[in-house]
Amino acid sequence: MADPLTLWPLLVVLAGAAVTYAWRALGVLLSDRIEAESPAFEWVACVAYALLAGLIARMILLPLGPLAETALSHRIAAAVISLAIFFLTRHNLLFGVGAGVGALTLLTLGFG
Predict the structure, then answer these.
(1) Residue 1: is it exposed, middle or buried by C-beta count within 10 angstroms (0-12/13-18/19+)?
(2) Are 58 and 79 in contact (CB under 8 A)?
(3) Rounded distance, CA 15 to CA 26, Å?
(4) Which of 35, 33, 32 lies closest to 43 in space, CA to CA?
(5) Where are the alpha helices (DSSP H) in the chain?
(6) How far apart (Å, rounded) are the C-alpha atoms in residues 51 and 9?
(7) What's the pLDDT tens digit per position in 66-85?
(8) Tens digit of each residue's pLDDT (9 = 90 or more) over 22-64
(9) Side-chain half-sphere exposure of 69, counting CA atoms within 13 A
(10) Coil, helix or strand for 14?
């Protein structure tokens, strides 16, 4: 018989997967009943965008961890460059994020 301590991590992972996939399955079952243009759905989308904007602003203005060691001017410049590349490449997220990471890395290392 296996030691209960070795089974515990497996049980935690399985329970987490079950909960995650149960909500996803419920979403699939209910998705045909949801109108994407309804006021409630538009409100949820607005709240999601507001949370994302707040988190990004916090990362730039009040960062934690290693990002806090970079200069504010470097973080702002990288964000501006990232947005510019994002819009210049017709909303290509990969290029926008890559440009922001590259700009922040180069600025932090002293190449800017």
Answers:
(1) exposed
(2) no
(3) 17
(4) 35
(5) 4-30, 39-61, 72-88, 93-109
(6) 32
(7) 999 999 999 999 999 999 99
(8) 999 998 998 888 888 899 889 999 999 999 999 999 999 999 9
(9) 5
(10) helix
Rounded to 5°, angle at Cα 24 from 23 and 25: 90
Task: Quickly tell me which residue has 């999601």 as its tokens.
Answer: 48
Task: Check: CB of residue 60 under 8 Å from CB of residue 78.
Answer: no
| Residue 108: C-alpha distances to residues 68, 75, 99 (Å) | 12, 9, 14
* CB half-sphere exposure, 93, CA atoms < 13 A: 0
Q: What is the mean pLDDT of residues 3-18?
A: 87
Q: Angle at CA 21, nearest 5°, toward 18 and 25?
A: 130
